[in-house]
Request: fold
Amino acid sequence: MANEYYEDEIEYFKHIGHELGHLWWRNGIHDSWEDWLNESFAEYSALLAIRVVYGEDKFNEFIDMYKKETKDFAPIKNIDRSASNAHALLYKKGPVILSELEKQVGMEAFQKLLGEVYSRKVDHTELLYEVISEAINDKAKEMLDKFLNT
Reply:
């Protein structure tokens, strides 16, 4: 019983964290694949909060679960926002992509990038690529493009 409550508590925490994330991540076009800039970033922000409050293991559990659930999914780039799997792509595959990017560039550089994305009010992926090139490097931009296309 206690374990069940704990899991529910984390799910509630994640849900609230996701919705609060939209205070920062809301500039992408909502009815296109660019909505990943809203939903994936908000969900990943909620997972980052889980990492801080509940620990790295719980954070990794979510990332691993999301990876497993989306491993055979189409790329995020150019998906039809009304497609049946769009929700899972944006809410689960997108955070996995952001996690991979964070692993590649490091937590400090990734957090700096999030600040730049927010302050520049990034509303489309091409602008995100520009910001990544400036804040980190072209290799990170190419890496993200590859992740979004696979």
Observations:
- The chain has a mean pLDDT of 95.
- DSSP finds seven helices and no strands in the chain.
- The helical segments are 2-21, 36-54, 56-70, 86-105, 107-119, 125-135, 138-148.
